[in-house]
Backbone:
């Protein structure tokens, strides 16, 4: 084949691929129910009814509500009331103005310089006498450079400056924007077209005057679809009005129509009074039906709107609904009577679903019919698996291994509970099933199944097992078992358990069959079993493919070759390209994070557009061709910036923001983020960075509010980015502001500080000089003081020295006196002894017989006797001694007398003698008594002094 031929073929494939993708993007899913988010009045805190819906350039949604203008930016709701507090019935956004209309009132909201919506009434342009005849403004249209407010009686055309009034031919009902014209319904004459300032009747439409036209949709340039309240649908083409007898028409006639919208160019949304809404194609075939049973909170749809991402908003009689038509996911849940799903398969025109309640089935057709799944009789209870085995349907059930045909259980092959069944490659027509107690052998002959035997050797079982030749691999918890079948299939000839795949790996992550071969995985590292070493060898190809992915815990390869892997509570896929390489896709699958059935991940790829994933609350239908349309970057907005006393609605101001300066006393600021992402609101996350304060981007969080406190003065830039539920990040959005310094750090304050510093230096210098002078004066005074203190100290020391000398002299004198006292006492004692001797001599001389003596001798004896007597009588030393002792010890005797008044003079003398430390003998001689008398006197003295036996008398006297 020539190179040019190859290039031509590649071009043809490329064109086909582009057309296929375009066709996918323009489709409405006709299988399952799209994601529905209901917003009740408790969510948005306004009226129940929502009559019109529109969206501004930032993606913020606005609703004409009974309580006023309602807005939603994906994070928060706000209500803006009309001055008259009337309901708003019409809404149109044009040129950054939000035009609204109600009863006898119409005008517009526009953001002021702070971004706050302020209302301007255009009804004031109507003369006061006619203002009360305005009636309800039901529709508002932006036509060329005009804004048209339609009431029942008139058109009010606002050209930006003035208001022009156009009377209705009879009475207007409703009006509809066709792009280059506006079509009105007149209640008498039918339809009129407003073009270039004139009304022109449309031929052959007067038959519509007996009904209300609630919607007109241009399904082609020459073909209009007209939806009436109670007469059904009509096609107006080439001035001919004909009924549109289709499925959609039957629905409208049955449920009454309240208008509609064109969605994705090829489909039509029709609202109803009684049964929600439908989406039909241009042939009138119903593709999708959403009502209360499918999850809508109210069946009366007053309005519908297709947003900038082709998602659908419904204004309900009680609430608001968002329908995620742009998602690759739709769901079969409780509305289809499904619960937790463990497996599914499409076989023989039916979709079979294994759930915790039993095996259910439904016709597999497009569009998917609305009736619920039906339970196959006899399968009530836990159903683990449903699989096609050699052209027949086998169900692994809590009651046994069931053979299914159509909607019946044909045979129970074994009443034990079963996980599943697999073919044994080395034994033709033989299959092995894993049940609660172990393994079982079955044989299939033609279309007939028969039980053969239970396999002895192990009672281990689990839902994850594979068969390779005559070897069964079983993964249970974190262990792996290699079970080798005997030649007669009656037992396992060998059983070996493995706790790890390599020395540095812990546990067994997963076991899976990829491209027809069994692989084992731990920590995203893949291994093959090598029988020659009875061990596991590393595998490079899949290890490289999964190298940069999160640690997986289960892998499944579908029949399209795609690899599905489970990590944490999420799922991802490696989509196989024609060249054999794999492309990682995670973003579109994050919607079902947290809803997967742990350890029983069910993925059934019917084809590229029909992938069924089992969830805890039903089945997710996934169209992989739609995921490429979701990879566009979302937009992040800083919705508002608040500080003390003021709030800026930043998103409403746009490029009209002046320099924002926040006073330092208001340096606590708050940011509110938003993003016009309305699908999967719980999975929308923000990350932010305040330049000048934060060092790095914050962790992703679904909190849309961030506060900063005590910001220092300076310039700041707030950056925020958003990550949608598909994992796609936006570019950062920024907002700049400054915090002014406090007054004490202002540049004027620094000038004052400098002046004060100069004055302070001058003052300090002067004070220093004065201080030096004072210091010198005080130094002189201090020196004088020190001199005087030293002089006084010397005088004091001199005085104390003199006193000490005096004291020493007194002590010396006392010692001398005591010595003299002692000497005097001794002398007195000697005198006493002398007098005693002399008295003895006198006594002896009296015994001399003087008669025998001569006169001379007698004279001499008499003379001697007189001399001795005279000497004795003349000696007064004893009395002097007593007087001296009393004088010396006067103070002592006085204290003793004061303390003991009853003491006698004799006892005072004894006390003085004892104080002088005289012995008993000396005291006896002085007092002229015996030694016994002294002891008796001492005893009496002790008694009078009240002394105990243990107390020393002399010591007591010395203490007085």
Residues:
């Amino acid at each position: 084949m020539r190179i040019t031929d190859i290039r031509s073929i590649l071009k043809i494939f490329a064109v086909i691929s582009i057309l296929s993708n375009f066709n996918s993007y323009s489709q409405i899913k006709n299988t399952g129910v799209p994601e529905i988010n209901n917003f009740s009045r408790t969510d948005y805190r306004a009226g129940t009814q929502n009559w019109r819906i529109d969206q501004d350039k930032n993606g913020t949604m606005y609703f004409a509500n009974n309580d006023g203008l309602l807005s939603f930016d994906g994070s928060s709701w706000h209500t803006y009331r009309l001055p008259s507090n009337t309901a708003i019935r019409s809404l149109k956004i044009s040129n950054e103005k939000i035009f609204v209309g109600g009863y006898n009132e119409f005008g517009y909201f526009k953001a002021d310089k702070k971004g706050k919506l302020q209302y301007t009434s255009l009804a004031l342009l109507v003369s006061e006498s006619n203002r009360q005849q305005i009636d309800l403004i039901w529709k508002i249209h932006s036509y060329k450079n005009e804004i048209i407010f339609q009431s029942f009686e008139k058109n009010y055309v606002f050209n930006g400056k003035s208001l022009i009034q156009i009377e209705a031919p009879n009475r207007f009902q409703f009006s509809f924007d066709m792009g280059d014209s506006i079509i009105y319904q007149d209640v008498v004459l039918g339809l009129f077209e407003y073009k270039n300032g004139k009304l022109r009747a449309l031929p052959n439409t007067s038959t519509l005057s007996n009904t209300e036209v609630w919607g007109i949709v241009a399904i082609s340039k020459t073909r209009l679809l007209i939806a009436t309240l109670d007469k059904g649908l009509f096609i107006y083409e080439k001035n001919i009005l004909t009924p549109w007898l289709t499925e959609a028409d039957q629905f409208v006639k049955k449920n009454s129509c309240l208008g509609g919208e064109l969605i994705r160019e090829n489909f039509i949304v029709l609202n109803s009074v009684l049964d929600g809404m439908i989406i039909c194609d241009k042939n009138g075939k119903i593709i999708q039906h959403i009502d209360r049973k499918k999850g809508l909170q109210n069946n009366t749809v007053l309005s519908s709107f297709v947003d900038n991402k082709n998602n659908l908003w419904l204004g309900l009689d009680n609430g608001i609904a968002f329908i995620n038509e742009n998602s690759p996911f739709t769901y079969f849940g409780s509305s289809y009577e499904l619960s937790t799903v463990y497996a599914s398969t499409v076989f023989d025109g039916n979709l079979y679903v294994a759930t915790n309640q039993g095996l259910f089935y439904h016709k597999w057709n497009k569009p998917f019919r609305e009736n619920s799944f039906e339970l196959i009789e006899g399968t009530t209870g836990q159903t683990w698996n449903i699989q096609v085995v050699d052209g027949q349907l086998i169900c692994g059930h809590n009651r046994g291994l069931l053979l299914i045909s159509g909607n019946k259980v044909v045979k129970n092959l074994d009443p034990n509970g079963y996980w599943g069944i697999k073919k044994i490659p080395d034994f033709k027509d033989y299959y092995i099933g894993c049940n609660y107690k172990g393994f079982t052998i079955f044989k299939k002959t033609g279309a007939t199944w028969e039980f053969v035997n239970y396999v002895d050797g192990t009672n281990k079982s689990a839902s994850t097992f594979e068969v390779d030749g005559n070897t069964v691999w079983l993964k249970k918890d974190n262990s792996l078992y290699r079970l080798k079948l005997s030649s007669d299939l009656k037992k396992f000839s060998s059983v070996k358990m493995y706790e790890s795949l390599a020395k540095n790996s812990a546990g067994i992550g997963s076991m899976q069959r990829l491209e027809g071969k069994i692989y084992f995985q731990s920590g995203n590292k893949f291994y093959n079993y090598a029988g020659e070493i009875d061990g596991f060898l590393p595998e490079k190809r899949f290890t490289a493919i999964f190298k940069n992915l999160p640690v997986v815990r289960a892998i499944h390869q579908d029949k399209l070759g795609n690899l599905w892997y489970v990590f944490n509570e999420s799922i991802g896929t490696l989509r196989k390209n024609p060249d054999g390489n794999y492309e990682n896709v995670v973003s579109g699958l994050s919607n079902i994070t947290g809803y997967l059935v742990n350890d029983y991940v069910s993925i059934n790829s019917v084809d590229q557009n029909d992938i069924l994933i089992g969830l805890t609350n039903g089945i997710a239908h996934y169209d992989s061709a739609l995921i490429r349309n979701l990879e566009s970057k979302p937009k992040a907005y800083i919705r508002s910036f608040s500080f003390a006393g003021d709030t800026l609605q930043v998103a409403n101001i746009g490029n009209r923001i002046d320099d924002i300066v926040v006073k330092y006393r208001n340096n606590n600021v708050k940011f509110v983020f938003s993003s016009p992402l309305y699908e999967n609101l719980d999975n929308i996350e923000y990350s932010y960075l305040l330049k000048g304060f934060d060092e790095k981007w914050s962790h992703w969080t679904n909190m849309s509010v961030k506060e900063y406190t005590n910001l220092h003065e300076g310039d700041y830039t707030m950056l925020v980015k958003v990550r949608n539920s598909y994992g796609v990040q936006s570019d950062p959005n920024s907002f700049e502001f400054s915090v002014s310094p406090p007054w004490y750090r202002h540049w004027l304050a620094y000038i004052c500080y400098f002046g004060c510093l100069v004055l302070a230096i001058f003052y300090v210098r002067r004070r220093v000089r004065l201080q030096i002078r004072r210091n010198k004066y005080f130094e002189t005074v201090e020196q004088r003081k020190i001199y005087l203190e030293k002089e006084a100290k010397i005088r004091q020391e001199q005085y104390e020295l003199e006193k000490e000398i005096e004291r020493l002299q007194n002590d010396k004198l006392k010692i001398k006196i005591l010595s003299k006292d002692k000497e005097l006492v001794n002398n007195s004692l000697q005198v006493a002894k002398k007098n005693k001797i002399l008295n003895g001599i006198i006594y002896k001389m009296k015994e001399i017989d003087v008669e025998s003596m001569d006169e001379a001798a007698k004279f001499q004896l008499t003379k001697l006797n007189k001399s001795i007597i005279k000497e004795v009588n003349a000696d007064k030393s004893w009395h002097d001694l007593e007087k001296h002792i009393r004088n010396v010890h006067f103070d002592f005797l006085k204290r003793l007398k004061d303390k003991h008044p009853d003491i006698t003079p004799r006892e005072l003398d004894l006390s003085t003698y004892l104080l002088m430390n005289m012995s008993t003998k000396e005291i006896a001689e002085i007092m002229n008594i015996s030694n016994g008398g002294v002891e008796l006197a001492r005893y009496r003295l002790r008694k009078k002094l009240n002394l105990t036996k243990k107390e020393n008398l002399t010591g007591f006297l010395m203490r007085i």
Notes: The chain is about 25% helix and 40% strand. Residues 1-25 have pLDDT under 50 and may be disordered. The first strand starts at residue 33 and ends at 39. The two ends are 148 Å apart (CA to CA).
